[in-house]
Amino acid sequence: MPKIQINGRELEVPVGTLVLDACRTAGVDIPHYCYHPALSPVATCRMCMVEIKGMPKLATSCTTSVPPPPKDNPEGVAMEIFTNTPAVADARAGVMEFLLLNHPLDCPICDQAGECKLQDYSYEYGSGDSRMAEVKRRYRYEDLGAKIVIDKNRCIHCTRCVRFTQEISGTWELTVAQRGSRLEVTTYSGKSMDQNAWAGNVVDLCPVGALTSKDFRFNKRVWYLKSIATISRLSALAGPIWADVDQNKVHRFRPRPQEGKLGTHFISDEERYAYHAFTADPASRPVKPRLRGVESTLEAVREALQAAGRIAVVGQGVFGCDSAQRLGELATAETLKFGSGDKFLQILLPKFQTSADGVFNRRGFSERGYRFSKLDELEQLVKSGEVKAVVFLHDAEFSSQKETDRLLEIAKAAPFSLALEVSPSALGEACTAWIPVANYLEESDFVVNHDGELRRYQKALEPPRGLKTIAAVARVLAPAATAVPA
Length: 486
Ligand code: SF4
Ligand code: FES
Hints:
By secondary structure, the chain is of the alpha+beta class. Among the domains are: 3-84, Roll (Ubiquitin-like (UB roll)); 284-483, Rossmann fold. It has 13 helices and 22 strands. The strands form 6 sheets. Strands 15-14-20-19-18-16-17 form a 7-stranded mixed sheet, sandwiched between helices. Strands 2-1-5-3-4 form a 5-stranded mixed sheet, sandwiched between helices. β19, α12 and β20 (433-436) form a beta-alpha-beta unit. The protein is elongated and about 85 Å long. It starts with a strand and ends with a helix. Residues 32-35, 43-48, 60, 62 line the site of FE2/S2 (inorganic) cluster.
């Protein structure tokens, strides 16, 4: 690997590494707008300029790569980069002044305030002055359909959003029109972004507040939000996401990019808006177990379960591995652990959606002995009387009507049935007993995704008072399993 020097500090990086990435490896942050690791480089913003020894002018670090070592001196330094010279500081200040010429000073009402690269870099690298004496260019904000709003006054023409629709979603709604100071990002006439199932990503990509989400707009100031590392629950890829929360309420989901994994920069709108399912008023959620239609206690349910006899469990693969493990301990025999969940996704971006499976911890459950597609066998065991009690861990959203009907049959045929659910479904109603459990944002656990990667998620919300996690409920019920002969 060639040796390079960054501000006098020597390091080795592979040939072809972008200077911007090499600097980041060395802990030197290079300001940038148009560069994005998942998009093609265009070098339009000119914010990432660095000085390179031997080059007559400053170079854009997002398009300049590290060359091989010098032929006549393989041990020598291939490139000397300087990021802290007066020329670099001048260039950055000049770019900031240029980008702010027409930019409105509307940070107090801008959704991006607090996470705006224009604010950050202006503070860090700007000169603080503007020579703009003319009246600023003005546009009215426009709706790009029901999901996205564009405020062209704030746009700095980095074209990240345009490149996203061309290179990632392939939907080509956005383009750049006009020239010079009239340059504007717009949609091809008559097009909205509503048909784009991944449209919300342009909001994350926009480094300023030009593209905002109608769902989040004017909802919350970002500095009140705490970002908790979690995962998307809608696909077996279990994509890493942030849950942004404040005062025990989740306000948005957004991608949590992982180094070297380009697919993690983007999430579908379905995944993005999935947080709405977790915003119900905690006071409206049932927290007490029910036994034969009346409110009861965990201990009473445990005694009823124990009295029933041989226990089988049906774990839907959309819960964490710890929950799966604890639930599995309730089964009287290893062979009595069954898996459920048969949701599948439409593949829209094959490059990133490498699995159509919509059951995000199927692999984690399988590794813990749960057998999927074997509900027929369980039904036989229940009908023949070999299994007396069935414990379901269930979320109605992840079972088709066909599977739900099969689960209902089993619940009705079993002398005793118990459902652990976040909110009651038809299955829960049909069971002899029902226990409410915390949802996945209310606990920490991990899953094994479709690719075999372990993905952890952290507790983002406090569950309503009195509500336990699945693992905690299973621990209380566990003595029932040990008391029943195998
Ligand atoms: S709208 Fe945002 S992402 Fe698109 S070009 Fe303008 S600044 Fe860049
Ligand atoms: S980030 Fe390099 S020119 Fe924009």
